[in-house]
Amino acid sequence: SKQLSSAPSVAIVGAGIGGVTTAWHCQRYGMDVTLFEAEAPAAGASGNPIGLLMPRVEANDTPSARFFRDAFLYALQFYHVTAPEHIKVMGGTIAPDQDRPSRFVKLMSSHMWHKDDFHLREDGSLFVTHGATLSPKKTIHKILGYGNIHVQRKRVTSIQQDHRSPVSLYSDENCVWHGDHVVIANGVHAHQFMKFNGMLKASRGQIDIFKGSPPSHIITSGSYIAPFGNNIAAGATYDDISLEEPINIDQTSTEKNKAAAKLLSDHDNIGDTLSSRASVRATTQDRYPIMGHVSPPAALPANAVWGVTGLGSHGLSTGPYLGAHIAHQLAGTISPLPPSALKLIEPMRFQKRKARQEKSS
């Protein structure tokens, strides 16, 4: 990336995969980047022991399908550059879709993907050639070290404007940063700074590591299993919860994950639970992430505040792609995202829908 002659200063709130990959891309342009994290980097879902890099499969050639395809391919390339030791490409099987048995057949004939990216099996399942696992927490720390990105352990409580710069961040009554742009990337807590009309949701998930012979590759069918060293990782997203609800490991979830591991691995030799981790993902009602310029509660200059949240279960795939877009926008260069994709994920889409509903009622 080219270095800007007059690089802006950027603060990013949240050191999960969305915030850290945005910081990395901004720093590549020579921007003065500061990350703010209330707890520690990878404290949320990005701190899970394992994560999947699998594409969101859509049968028809649509802007949505192209967005998730391009994000997946970009993420594979990004992690191979920034954290090659923490990504393992092994392939992954997606179970047959009983409700839509022709979905995978349509996908294979859409010509959206390279012919070697997928293989349709006789049992109706779809094999994803480049499916991969990632160690999210290790990856985040590697990216931070790779870019020498500065992280401040402070809880940002408000975004304001003062005489020194276009935008300032406050922790309670204390100004902790002032500069040109702020990117809100703190997952479910983004609702503290942005208005979503109830469209931002929280989903609780849990990953368990069990003793047992690991599968050779990823297997998904609602729940998923994947190799984790010499053992088995099993996970799923179970419950919609309130945005501020505390997250705890749940024995019922562990039992569900163990049952799924037995079913998907096709054998009963699943041993004791070695470790468990519960976390919360930010998601949206329409299942698309939120990314773009936002209007925070306070009156601030146009384009001063950006948001990237609601990444959901495909955050490891979409995070780097969205981070690249924000960096390109702040640098004034051409974004990798086409207009059709930006329309899907713009933050104002919720307000626009609400306005249309009120007008028609």
Descriptive tags:
8 helices; 361 residues; six-stranded mixed beta sheet
Short structural description:
This protein has 361 residues and is an alpha+beta fold. The protein has helices at 17-28, 63-82, 103-109, 136-147, 251-265, 315-331, 339-345, 349-360, and strands spanning 9-13, 32-36, 51-53, 87-89, 92-94, 118-120, 126-128, 132-134, 150-152, 158-162, 165-171, 174-179, 181-184, 200-210, 218-221, 223-228, 231-241, 273-284, 290-293, 305-309.
Shape: globular
* Distance linking N and C termini: 49 Å
Helical residues, percent: 25-40%
Order of helices and strands: EHEEHEEHEEEHEEEEEEEEEHEEEHHH
Helix and strand content put the structural class at alpha+beta
Q: What percent strand?
A: 25-35%
Write out the strand line-up for the largest beta sheet, numbering strands in chain order.
6-7-5-15-16-17-14-18
Mean pLDDT, to the nearest integer, reads 90
Task: Report low-confidence residues grouped into runs of 5 or more.
Answer: none
Number of helices: 8
Radius of gyration: 21 Å
Q: What composes the largest sheet?
A: 8 strands, mixed
- Total number of β-strand segments? 20
Structure description:
It contains eight helices and 20 strands. The protein has 361 residues and is of the alpha+beta class. The strands form four sheets. An eight-stranded mixed beta sheet has the order 6-7-5-15-16-17-14-18, with helices on both faces. Strands 9-2-1-13-20-19 form a six-stranded mixed beta sheet, covered by helices on one side. A hairpin with a 5-residue loop joins strand 6 and strand 7. Helix 1 runs parallel beside helix 4, helix 1 packs parallel to helix 6 and helix 2 crosses helix 6. The longest helix has 20 residues. It is globular, with a radius of gyration of 21 Å. 42% of the residues are buried. The model has no long low-confidence stretch (mean pLDDT 90).
